[in-house]
Amino acid sequence: MYLIVLEQTLFRMSKFSEVAIVNKKEIANKVFVIEFKREFDFNPGQIIGITMSPDDKPRLYSICSGNNDKHISILFNVKEDGKLTPPLAAANIGDKIWITKVHGKFVFNNELAWWIATGTGIAPFHSMFKSGQNPLKLIQGGRLKSDMYFSDEFKAMNDYVRCASQDTGDGLFEGRLTKYLNELEDIPTNINYYLCGSTNMVMDVRNLLITRGVGFDKVITEIYF
Amino acid sequence: MSKENLFGKTLNELKDICSELKLPGFTAKQISEWLYKKEISTIDEMTNISKKNRELLSVGFQVGLIPSIKVDESTDGTKKYLFPAKGKNFIETAMIPDKDRKTICVSSQVGCKMGCLFCMTARQGFQNNLTAGEIVNQYRSIDEFQDISNIVYMGMGEPFDNLDEVLKSIEILTADWGYAMSPRRITVSTIGIIPAMKTFLENSEAHLAVSMHTPFDEERKALMPVESVYALKDVVNEIKSFDFGLQRRVSFEYIMFKGVNDTPAHVDELVKLLKGVRCRINLIRFHPIPDSTLVGSDDQTILKFKETLNDKGILTTIRASRGEDIFAACGLLSTKELVKSQEEDY
Questions:
Q1: For helices B264-273 and B232-240, what crossing angle results, to 10°?
Q2: N or C end of chain B: which has fewer CB within 10 A?
Q3: Smallest CA–CA separation between A106 and chain B, in Å?
Q4: Is B166 helix (H, G, I), strand (E, B) or coil?
Q5: Which long-range contacts (CB under 8 A, 24 or more apart) does B270-274 make?
């Protein structure tokens, strides 16, 4: 029995690292950024598994911080019926969480590209931007202005478009980002498109781009599941 | 108050229910036999349980079988069943007869989150996970129920995105107290969600099929977004490290797209990637979906691809196309029937 317990403990330890939360901020209603100590390198756009207990299955999150930042951060919204996000949102600085190794290949190849995101799907692009990478254009979508996370930082970009389906003013494009794309006269077909967000958004935008002549091999997607 | 379904409960779950209702310990086994070994549809038909206990059970529970609402039949005998699911949604189940067997292709989710470029179900987006009861019901509630020889989890949805219910459904299908089917007659297909695949391999005896569709990373990323999260090479490495024994099979599904993944370079890369893996590649003709730029490879190319792979030592077969006249490939029927009650705002 002791050996089995020891084996299970060693297995868990090999899968996870224990880290302390060093910062937590609610950046919008029920949307949080938490930071923890950085113990490894990563490529912007990669993901990490997070859990509050090594006995639970980790949930995957895109890293939100730049690869020169001192800490690793992730962006999440609280799902009321979720097992992880309510306690994670309630956690305090100094509390321990468990993280997996980083993995994933949603990485920017520095070729000409547009980045398109909704909701917390902006996280990998924030990481890329903070790491010194830049797209030709960033299109961020959401219902309200407050859904445009990190917009103050992105405003430094040459071409940054915020599409709000239920908000107006402050330079917002009024309507979904699919409406914005549909209204563009020209959609370049010789660049890459990086999409991150809900399945529905990614599917709609990918279909729209392909319909407008963009090759399917130029559309790089990440879907949350 | 809506009643909870008994159909789809495991023996342990039935024991918990009986214990809560203070029914005799042996009642759970009796219920499982009525549910999974006899063709009853109401609690009142469970005649070896006392009337008083049946009434007690009926207060909060029902058997919960769900009949199909539509059946299309192909000229080749393939049938496609449409079942209602939660929230005005629908799921599809295909029954494919062959010489000496009948295979049923079950759905594990309403819609799918995975967004594969060539998949009609992906166009629906994701609506819900199916319960184990809703999965097993697809087997139990079709006309050919008694004659089904094989079950494949290749319908709508990604089974490993709903692993707990999928494992529970396999338990019901294979346990002595359930349908007592051999796990070797069950195949679960995945796009390669590695942690769930490991759990499945360790907790089930059913066969594994992996949707590959190309051995090249960047190409697979464009066809299947999951490649950005779980790379095919890591999926194959995980499979290489697992002991499948002599009876358990692993296969790779490969839909052939003209000019995309059907070249000699793909053959060479497949041979490199699968070196040392005892497996089979199943080549699949692409059934075009509306507004897709992808086109299926021609028969000659598919045959040549198969022969070259076989010559290079990888067992390769071509899946016979069935039910094309009723769009047996999943998603088309339910997408048409889907009532979108509210659109997502983004």
A1: 40
A2: N
A3: 5
A4: helix
A5: B270/B215, B270/B309, B270/B314, B271/B309, B271/B312, B271/B313, B271/B314, B272/B215, B273/B215, B273/B232, B273/B233, B273/B236, B274/B236, B274/B314
* Structural domains of chain A in order of their starting residue, each with its CATH number: 2-99 (2.40.30.10), 113-223 (3.40.50.80)
Q: Which of A105, A147, A173 to mutate to test the interface with B (most CBs of B within 10 A)?
A: A105
- The reply to whether B205 belongs to the active site is no
* Contact assignment for B346 to A57 by CB distance below 8 Å: no
Question: Which chain B residue has the Cα nearest residue A221?
Answer: B225
Which tokens is B244 given?
A: 């499948």
Domains of chain B by range and CATH?
4-62 (1.10.150.530), 70-337 (3.20.20.70)
pLDDT digits (tens, 9 = 90+) for B78-89: 999 999 998 889
Tally Cβ neighbours within 10 Å of residue A197: 25
Length of chain B as a residue count: 346
Q: Which residues contact B295 (CB under 8 A, 6 or more apart)?
A: B257, B258, B259, B286, B288
Coil vs helix vs strand at B85: strand
Query: Edge-to-edge, what's the strand order for the sheet holding B89-97?
Result: B70-73, B79-85, B89-97, B102-105, B150-153, B186-190, B207-211, B250-256, B280-285, B315-318
Query: Which of these is catalytic: B171, B279, B330, B343?
Result: B330
Q: For position B192, what pLDDT does the model report?
A: 96
Q: Token pair of B190, please?
A: 């995945």
Q: What single DSSP character describes residue B333?
A: H
The answer to whether B31 and B6 have CB atoms below 8 angstroms apart is: yes
State how far Cα B288 lies from the chain centre. Answer: 21
Q: How confident is the model at residue B336 (pLDDT cuts 50, 70, 90)?
A: low
User: Is B18 assigned a catalytic role?
Assistant: no
Q: What is the pLDDT along chain A (225 residues), one digit of tens a residue?
A: 444 444 444 444 457 899 999 999 999 999 999 999 998 899 999 999 999 998 888 999 999 999 999 999 999 999 998 999 999 999 999 999 999 999 999 999 999 999 999 999 999 999 999 999 999 999 999 999 999 999 999 999 999 999 999 999 999 999 999 999 999 999 999 999 999 998 889 999 999 999 999 999 999 999 877
Which residues lie across from B104 on neighbouring strands?
B95, B151
- Under the phi-then-psi rule, with left for phi > 0, alpha for psi from -120 to 50, and beta for the rest, what region is B259? left
CA distance B252 to chain A (A): 22
Phi, psi (rounded to 5 degrees) for B195: -60, -40
**Interface predicted TM-score (ipTM) of this complex, two decimals:** 0.85
**Cα–Cα nearest to B283, from B260, B248, B257, B311:** B257
- The residue of chain A nearest to residue B217, with distances taken between CA atoms, is A105
The structure's pTM equals: 0.90
Question: pLDDT tens, B195-225?
Answer: 999 999 999 999 999 999 999 999 999 999 9
Choose the closest CB to B217 out of A105, A177, A219: A105
Is B344–A200 a contact, with Cβ atoms under 8 angstroms apart? yes
Residue for token pair 């940054």 = A160
